[in-house]
Amino acid sequence: MNRIAAVLLVVLLGVCSALGWVILPSLWSRSKDPAAPNPGGHASQPARSLHPQLYQPRQPLDTSGAALGFKLLMPWKDPTSLEEIRDAWGNLGRRSLAQVDAALRRGLADGDRCPALLFKASMFMYEGDPKRAYQVLQEARSLAESSPGLAKEWLSTFVFFQGVAGLRRGEDENCLQCRGEGACIFPLRPTAVHTNPAGSRLAIQHFTEYLERFPNDPGARWLLNVAYMTLGEHPGRVPAKYLMTFDTFGAEFDIGRFRDIAHLVGVNRLNQAGGAIMDDFDNDGLLDLIVTSWDPAQS
How far is CA 36 from CA 42, 43, 56, 71, 77, in A? Predict the structure, then answer.
């Protein structure tokens, strides 16, 4: 099995669309294009009635919100001060949410409201709250569907992001809240099938909807197959035109299968991912474990 199999799902969910992550701040702050269609000057038309070719594909963005959070981070004066580093990172997502909410309350034109809502959804994902992110994306989607111009530019991005938020919810409610030895280890075994299917059902709904417009998007196809796999429905329930098979995955080397036994040995702490080193550091014949965390306030 490929050496990275144990973390493939987590990594892909985090960076499945990270290319071009700098787009959100610039989109949120830009002025509305005067040449763009004026929603008030057109009769409302449901976006789904438009021909698929009139939609633009999803915009590149980091759906985890992490790269966006890094970009918003304010520098600290003393690079050796752990307190200043902690304060700079503290509540970064919540502070950013407060800022975008203030902007939305002041009133934004629809063309600026769409990227602001996308920014808000990304910050909820950064804060580990995919349910709230999904609610914001539903609001953004309704706004985009109110105008053909907005739908052309934004709808596909919102639909894809809804799928990611659903899959992230499924991961939270199953892989994190109900840990098991096979959770999130690809390819998923029957013991890793989600017992709470709501998040993955939403993911299947929205990735399928997106692929109906853009069937050649490999990232959306991959995530659709993963969503079906989390429910034990791969390959049987996957539409044939979107099916990916993994029969030969890891066949080049057999290094065994990773088992998550952290809960059995008392190291199943739930914190922000960092690094880990295992060795006998004190020469007592027992392996020692050193871990780090992205959380600057964690002790």
Answer: 12, 15, 15, 28, 43
**Dist. CA 168–CA 234, nearest whole Å:** 18
Residue 252, φ and ψ in degrees, nearest 5: -70, -30
- Using CA atoms, how far residue 255 sits from 1, 5, 27, in Å, is 6, 11, 46
> Cis peptide before 235, with omega less than 30 degrees from 0?
yes
Give residue 99's pLDDT: 92
State the pLDDT at residue 9: 41
Q: Which amino acid is at 245?
A: T
3-state secondary structure of 243: coil
Which ranges in 16-76 belong to alpha helices (H)? 23-29, 66-72
Number of H helices, E strands in the chain: 12, 2
Reduce the DSSP state of residue 166 to 3 states and report it. Answer: helix
Contacts of 136 (CB under 8 A, 6+ apart): 117, 120, 121, 124
Residue 113 and residue 154 in contact, taking contact as beta carbons nearer than 8 Å = no
Terminal Cα distance for the chain, rounded: 35
C-alpha–C-alpha distance, residues 201 and 196, integer Å: 10
Burial (CB count <10 Å: 0-12, 13-18, 19+), residue 211: buried
For residue 47, what pLDDT is reported? 41
Closest Cα to residue 244, out of 254, 253, 234? 234
Q: What is the dihedral of CA 113, 115, 119, 125, to 10 degrees?
A: 110
Tokens of 210: 């997106």
pTM value is 0.77
Any idea which residue has 């295992």 for tokens? 278
Q: Which one-letter amino acid corresponds to residue 267?
A: V
Regions of the chain with pLDDT less than 50: 1-23, 25-27, 29-50
Q: What local confidence, expressed as pLDDT, does residue 253 receive?
A: 80
* pLDDT for res 67: 86
Answer positive or negative: Cα dihedral of 209, 61, 10, 294.
Answer: negative
